[in-house]
Amino acid sequence: MFAARLARMTESPILAMARKRRELVAAGHDVIALNIGEPDFDTPDHIRAAAKRAIDAGHTHYPPVAGLAELRAAIARKLREENGLDYAPDEIVVTGGAKQALANAMFALLEKGDEVILPAPYWVAYRGLVELVGATAVIVPATIDDGWRVPPQRLAAAITEKSRLLILNTPGNPSGVVLKESELAAIAELVRAHPRLMVISDEIYEYILFDGARMHSIAALNGMRERVITVNGFSKGFAMTGWRLGYAAAARPLAAAIAKMQGAFTAGANSIAQHAAIAALEGPRDAVEDMVRTYAERRRFVMQRLRAIEGVRAVAPEGAFYVLADVSADGGEDDAALCDRLLAERHVALTPGGAFGAPGTVRISFAASRADLAEGLNRFAAGLAAS
Fold first, then answer.
1. Is the pTM here over 0.85, yes or no?
2. Does the domain at residues 4-43+286-385 carry the CATH identifier 3.40.190.10?
3. Distance between CA atoms of 46 and 239, rounded to whole angstroms?
4. What span, in angstroms and rounded, lies between the C-alpha atoms of 205 and 116?
């Protein structure tokens, strides 16, 4: 009755946990949400004000498929000044969220039989999109003993003549790993040795960094500009998840292919959100810095609390707002069953790490209030002790 591709699609474990949590809340239960992958802050005032001005000025019509010229120019300046990336405005495509940028790129690049290398832990949507396109995901795992970092030699061993795409995410969701320039240089060397292999670099968490970690873009390295699609957006750093705005930057032929896919699916991204995004890039960053300071305080609290829970191991994240905690010590309950039980019995929502290619772990979001973190971690600890 339906297209065969639907059989390749299952409900995202992240969305499934969110749905189960909402059902409990609707039934009147007090559920602590440590599964949420979005800032718990409102969009900064000057960005909201820009959107209101755009509405009043009548910017309510179809925008160009690839994005407003003013926004693409602002993104080009941002990439040049902050990331060392030299893209012209016509090499940037504004999308309906970073996920659409990823989908556009994959549909433009991948055929059935192509292989996509996913260093694990990975954001769950990557694998879903790869499978939707009809390509094959090749998972290259890291463990907590690796610090959640996949060694380049492990990536090298995964490359075959079918390898078409490598997806990087730095800072990483769910691991919090920020790839060092030396790590990116080693990866770039591998890519340059395989002419068919392209890279998507998802940098959506770039502003959320801790303990002196520095952001580096692989596209800035020698010989990589033509081989990389840099994906970013406004959701995480500017607390604009509901505005649904992202972008891809790539060499002109790649950008044109991405824009062509977008024209087929959705046409231009929300015009009002694009005007707000210009204000985000060109306005003050005080609110962003305040958010990051708050995340840093929460991170310290969460790590201190996790270290006191028997049977839990965790590596302090260098970026983003998650801790990936290893709960495999007792070798019993798998992570999905554990998260379901914690939600049902303790009313705390976490995300099972198996969804990210890291079985035996749970992802804890610290995009939550200090009070919710304290109570949620108490419930987590009590649930583990009762297993």
1. yes
2. no
3. 12
4. 22
